[in-house]
Amino acid sequence: MSQFSQQKKEIVGIILAAGTGSRMKQTKQLLSYRGKPLLQHIIDAATGSMLAKVILVLGHEAEVIRKRIVLNDIVEVIQNPYYRSGQSGSLKVGLAAVSETCEAAMFLLGDQPLINSEVIDRIIQQYDKTGSTLVIPRYEGTRGNPVLIDQSLFKELEQLSGDTGGRELFRCHHEAIEYLDIQADAILTDIDTPEDYQRLLKRQRTQWNEV
Known about the structure:
Blueprint: H1 3-6, E1 11-17, E2 32-33, E3 36-37, H2 38-47, E4 53-58, H3 62-68, E5 75-79, H4 87-96, E6 104-109, H5 117-130, E7 134-139, E8 142-143, E9 147-150, H6 154-157, H7 167-172, E10 177-181, H8 194-210
Parallel strand pairs: 1-4, 1-6, 4-5, 7-10
Antiparallel strand pairs: 2-3, 6-9, 7-8, 7-9
């Protein structure tokens, strides 16, 4: 029996990867890390997890990116024509592609290459166990990503605007948040600037030297 048939609820992953990477000054989704594009790492983690389906939201350089990444049959690619309006636009475009049978959505960032399937599955398992409407991973007291949101909050998500992501939702429902402590800083590591990318490569070289 596959891991997909074993899961109790239909949970969809939405990868937000439409941004221009303005601080990076290049298409950061395609930066090379461990021999493949940055975006490919989170795609592989999502498709190797308990998620029933993965929706990939692209925008900036969408066609170029599609030619460089590898997808399987559980991935649906959606293009956000309003990607310059901020992350909430991509969030809503992805959410609009979710079926009515979906019980929760996990929002993943396309620039977090250190997230693996285990982290994703632990968040799903916490949701299954607690029934919380919001499950957020935390490392040493700091909130990170990806975040899982129950379908009961989808209508409120659709009202968000700008580049705030889900922060306003978290503020309004702070009492409903179930935090999951993760003993890895992968949930805090996103690649926004050239300095972030250089730190990631340095970390990779250090790990290789330790092997």
